[in-house]
Each structure stands twice: as C-alpha cells, then as structure tokens.
Amino acid sequence: MVNHEAPYGSWPSPIDAALVAAHDGRPEFLTSIGDELWWTAPRPAEGGRRTLMRLSPGDGSGSPVAESVLPAPWNVRSRVIEYGGQPFAGVPREGRGPLVVFSHFADQRLYALDPDAASADHAASTPGASGGEPVPLTPLGAVGGGLRFVDPLVLPDRGEVWCVLEEFTGEGPTEVRRVLVAVPLDGSAAEDRGALRELTDDAHDFLTGPRLSPDGRQLAWLVWDHPAMPWDGTELRLAEVTADGRLEATRTVLGGPQESVVQVDWAADGSLLAATDRTGWWNLHRVDPGGGTPVNLCPREEEFADALWKLGHRWFAPLENGLVATLHGRGGARLAILDTGSGELADAPGPWSEWSAALAVRGSRVAGIAASPHSSYEIVELDTCTGHLSVLAAHHTDAVDPAFLPRPEQRTFTGPDGRPVHAHIYPPHHPDHRGPQGQAPPYVIWAHGGPTGRAPLVLDLELAYFTSRGIGVAEVNYGGSTGHGRVYRNRLREQWGVVDVEDCATVARELAREGTADGTRLAVRGGSAGGWTSASSLVAPSVEGLYATAAISYPILDPAAWADGETHDFESRYTESLIGRLEEVPDRYRERSPVLLADRVSVPFLLLQGLDDVICPPEQCDRFLAEIGDRVPYTYLAFEGEGHGFRRAETIIRAVEEELALYRRVFADGPRGAGGDGSAGGR
Q: Which member of 140, 278, 327, 402 has the greatest number of CB atoms within 10 A?
C-alpha cells in the first residue's frame, strides 16, 4: 500500500547501479550443434567479455546444466563491420564430442576448439575450462584492422570452414575488402594468409555468410554495396558448388536497390527461403533458383525479420518436417510455426512477447532467446509436436521484488502531419512511495540507437533503476524505426535530425499536456544514433526550451566529419540516406550539426564516451565541448577500454549513477536549475 510521500527522483530503491551492471547484456547467437545448444553470454564483471556457453542433453538423471566452455580472457566476438555477427559454429562428431570454431575478439583470429579433449592438467590449471586449448586456424593481419572472420560454416568433410573474411588493405577505416573464404581446419593457414582459399571475388562491398543446400551442391548468400544499408537494398546470390569446392554459375535470384533481403536459408526439401520486404514488409518467401517470381508464404502487414545489424541473425529456421519456425509481429517479435503449404501461422504459447533473431532447431524442437516486460531474456524451447514450451537456461529470477518494476503501456501518439508515433511509456512505480500530491513526475525520453532499429518492450533493470526512484521513462520508436514496415522506416530518409527529434518531442509534449509528465522537468537521453537525437534535441529550433537536460552517450555530433571518413566502413555512407549526399546538400549538414550549433545548448548535460570507439570516435565529443566552453554546466566522462556501447561493470555503474545524479540536480531545481559540474573528468 502506498503510504509515503516523497519528491520524485528521491524514492529509495533496491535496484542499485551494481545490480544494473550485473544484469547488463543478454544471451546471443543461439546455435544447435547436434543435440546441444550453444550461445554466447555477457560477463560484465570480467571486462565485458563474451563467454561461450554449452547446454548438453544430459544423461537423463536430472535437468541439464549450462556451462561456460571458455575461461577468461577468451572473448567470443567478431569485429566484422564492427558490429560483428555470428562468431562461432560447430558440428557434432560421432563418439568424440563437437568440433567448434570461433572468433576471438582480442586478435580476431579463428580458433578451433575440441571441448571434450581437456587434459587433467589443463582442467586443473584453468578454472572454468571444460575443453582443450583453442588452436588458431587463421593468421594475424599486418595492415590496418587486420583479418576478421564471421558467420562460419564448418565443413569437416571438406576439411574447411567457410565464412566471411573482412581484410584491411590500408590503415584507413574504409580501406577494406570482404569475400567468402575457405579456411583449412588443419591449421595450415594459421601463419599463412596464402592458405586461405577465396570463394568469391570482392566485387561487392558487403556480404553475409554462406548457406549450403542440403545436397551440398548450391550455395546462397546476400550482398550489398555502398551507399545502401542492408535494410535499403540487397541481393540474394546463388552459385553451384563444384566437387572441388569452387563456385560457378553465380547469379542474383532476388533483391535489388529497393528490396531488402535480410536472411536466406534452405528448407529440408532443398527449396530456398528468404525474408524480403518486396511487399513493403519483411515477409517470408519461397525463392525460385531460376529467377522466377518468389512466392509469399504468409502475406501479412507484419515484419518476419528486422534490420540486419549483425551478420548471421536468424529470424526464421526451417524444420525437418517442412514447417518453418519464424518470428513475426508489428513493433515486436513473437515465435510462431508456419505451415508453408497452407500459409497457416500458429503462435507459440507462453508469456514471452519478444524473441531475439537467433532461432536454433533440434529435430522437431525450436529454441530461442525470449523475454517479456516482466522477465529477462531466457533460453526457451518449443516442442512443435506437443506445443509445450520450457525454459532451458539463463532462467529469469527476480533480482528484486517485482513490486519495484515498472508497468509499461504501449501507446501511439499523433505527430506532425498526423503521422503515428509509437512509444512505450513507463510511469514511475514504487510499492510504498508516491510523489507529492498534485505534482506530475519528471520524465526522460529515451531515443534508441540505430537509428534503423527499435526499442523492444522487455524488462530492463536500467530503466527500472529510474522508474523505481520516481522518474518516468518513455521509449520512443520514432519514424525510421523498424517493426512497422518500410514506409514507416523510410520516414527518416534525408530527415535524420528532424523526424526523430520531432517524434520524440511529440511524445514529451503530449505526456506533459495530459498531465502524465511535468512539462518543466523533461529530459532526453540516448546512445549512438540516440545520442545524436538527444544532442540534436538541444539545438533544434523546433524543440527549443522543451528539455531541461540531456544524457548523451557515444553520439554522432559532427555528421559532416562522420560522412567524411570519421567512422567505420559499414556506416561510412549511411548519412547519404539519412541526410543526403554531403557534396550536394552541405547546408543540411551544417543546419543539423550539434557541433556547429553548440551555441544553442542552454541546459546542463551529461556526455559519456568510450575512448576506443571507432564508430562514434571521441574526437567528436572533443569538438563539441570545445564549442560549448563554459557557457553551460556539463559532466563529461570518457572511459578507457570501452568502445561503442559500454560492457564493463565499473563503467556501467559509473554511467548510471552519474545520470541519476544529473536528473536529481536538474529536476530538484526545475528546468533551469544548476546542472553538472562542467568537468571533463574520467579521461
């Protein structure tokens, strides 16, 4: 029963920053290897590394227990296109246990792992190890970012691993080529670049990993070229595989400049399946290898896929019986089983409302990574024969009394020109505290990254950290977000810094107008592209005076420099669709640049940056703060050892605590109260 009145932002909460950091991250890249499930899991307390997890069927004497296969400092994570992708793969071996190949973050080499070949000495000297020492398969690169590998396919019969190779040809971030390559499993390429056999040429700027047909005679993959991003236009490439492992008769069978194909796979009967937005929605299609018209297997104004930010994401997975497990929805992703003959779609039962793009099939069972507004991401498996779902690993346990967790609302607001703006509203919530009578609470508008992405409606302890203290949160899936079709996604084309800013402001203003939020105590925050939107919201004339403060993390602040070589290759021409070609519309870049408009910033802010960030480099923050000078108070924290997005527990703790401190200072004194300390600490 609520019986304590206290100022918003001051409520006591058991959700502290250490708890937030301990629960940061989630399982990723779930994969089946025979009857086993494998995935990567975060380790914030171990420098933010990703460990490799294994779940064996067990011997029937009890529930199987997931185990970490690789101890520190092994870090299973690829840097291809900087965002990475599927960093490992494996195959079962009769009587010997699986053979696993993975990418190690520190040197980006591929390694082979025989997890069941541990010697007693090795196991005794390496706590947490459950297998033999990894053996390198690829050499170190000597130029620029070196050699990087992702989305592997292990082919023991050929004695090779087929995967994407990203190879730097110079020191610049865009001096890079990408090809499909065959890596010998015998280790003969560990010190010899010449032993890597290239399967394709480098005619295309980007490509995904290979998908081999059930009979081994055809290979499919996706390609795209600058300035397109994979959600703009891609091509599905198909080739014949010769007996000696070469590709011939390569051709495009689907896709183009205005069609985004984001996943391709083979059904058990040898038919080719792809997720494409040719209808305006990412729907699942059967593809004619001869180039005929593809067949939409379940026509719906829903998304059966999402933006391809990481290579190897898997939104659908064919089963042996001809059915297809697939994710689908509008503004969310739930699991269903599709009958490709009838088009019937049967949703899986259970409370999980959001599933990651990582489906793994074991016979008639489908495993995935699922969460809900009340539970964190878990490894969940559906038995398609019985319809039964069970949690296998990463079980959700309440870190705190659920009474302290927020109760979100899904809402759609009306933006400029009558356009819809989708958002998740998280009012302040506490089991026995409330705000002062007659007062509305402060609210923070959260702008997600991407910007071609979305905020899922799932339990987030970082969000609950604020709501349990009396600060509301509104996550805005502004125009340009995924989950609502291509038209909604294209709303941001050449309008970045305008539509995203206006849509966030729409939600903030309406919450204030209806009395849900205190209009004098509004803030905006975000990271990466969300950091851009947050910073832009402080300088855009259309929202002047709306926000009392902002928390800006690893942002884009100088779009002209970002478009002129100050970022990595993958997004180096992203601004051409988001703003326009720099040489053609230079005024747009100047009119939307937080660096050039820094004199318009009039409120205190927090700026957080990783010093190892090559996507949004710290130099942009330096230029922004040089323009700010001492006109407004701010706090700047730059963290050594952190890249794009924070992974280390100590960093997350500091960042969360500083953000709360900012809100308490600003909101306690109203919209123009004394803010940050003007320091550039943490460097």
A: 327
How far apart, in whole angstroms, are the C-alpha atoms of residue 214 and residue 619? 49
pTM exceeds 0.85 for this model: yes
First to last CA, the chain: 45
The beta strands (E) that lie in 44-159 are given as: 49-55, 67-68, 88-91, 99-103, 110-113, 135-136, 147-155
Residues forming beta bridges with residue 147, ordered by sequence position: 167
Whether residue 208 contacts residue 164, with contact meaning beta carbons closer than 8 Å, is answered with yes
Pair 536, 497: CB distance under 8 Å: yes
Question: Structure tokens of 223?
Answer: 């390609």
Query: Which position has the token pair 């700026």?
Result: 607
In the structure encoding, which two tokens stand for residue 416, read together?
């400029």
- Secondary structure class of 232 (helix, strand, coil): coil
Radius of gyration of the chain (CA): 25
Whether the per-residue pLDDT at 75 is higher than 60: the answer is yes
Buried b (16+ CB within 10 A) or exposed e, 583-612: eeeeebbebbbbbbbbeebebbbbbbbbee
474 is written with which tokens?
């509104």
How confident is the model at residue 61, as a pLDDT? 58
Residue with structure tokens 């227990």? 65
Q: In Å, how far from its chain's centre is CA 272?
A: 26
Q: How far apart are CA 668 and CA 647, in angstroms?
A: 31
Amino acid occupying residue 544: E
H or E segment and range at residue 587 = helix 586-592
Measured CA to CA, the distance from residue 130 to residue 328 in angstroms comes to: 37
CA dist., res. 106 & res. 140, Å (int): 11
Output the CA–CA distances (angstroms, integers) from residue 107 to 77, 134, 140, 604, in the order listed: 10, 13, 7, 40
Q: What residue type is assigned to position 78 of the chain?
A: S
- Kind and range of the H or E run holding 499: helix 499-513
| pLDDT tens per residue across span 173-216 | 999 999 999 999 999 999 999 999 999 999 999 999 999 999 99
* Calpha distance 80→90 (Å, rounded): 19
Query: At residue 550, what is the residue type?
Result: A
Alpha-carbon distance 634 to 604, whole Å?
Answer: 5
Q: Whole-angstrom Cα distance, residue 145 to residue 167?
A: 8
What string of H, E and C letters represents the secondary structure of 341-391?
CCCCEEECCCCCCEECCECEEECCEEEEEEEECCEEEEEEEEECCCCEEEE
DSSP-assigned letters across all residues of 565-583: TSS-STTTTTHHHHT--TT
What H or E segment, with its residue span, contains residue 218?
Answer: strand 218-224
The residue type found at 471 is: I
How far is 86 from 110, CA to CA, in rounded Å? 12
pLDDT at 118: 59
Q: Can you spell out the DSSP letters for 602-640? A: -S-EEEEEETT-SSS-HHHHHHHHHHHTTSS-EEEEEET
Residue with tokens 């302290």: 404
Distance CA 74, CA 132 (A): 13
d(Cα 82, Cα 176) in Å, to the nearest integer? 12
SS3 559: helix
Q: Say which amino acid occupies 240.
A: E
Measured on CA atoms in the order 561, 564, 566, 567, is the torsion positive or negative?
positive
What's the Cα-to-Cα distance from 585 to each of 42, 88, 198, 218, 229, rounded to whole Å?
42, 42, 40, 44, 20
pLDDT tens profile 115-166: 998 543 443 333 333 457 999 999 999 899 999 999 999 999 999 999 999 9
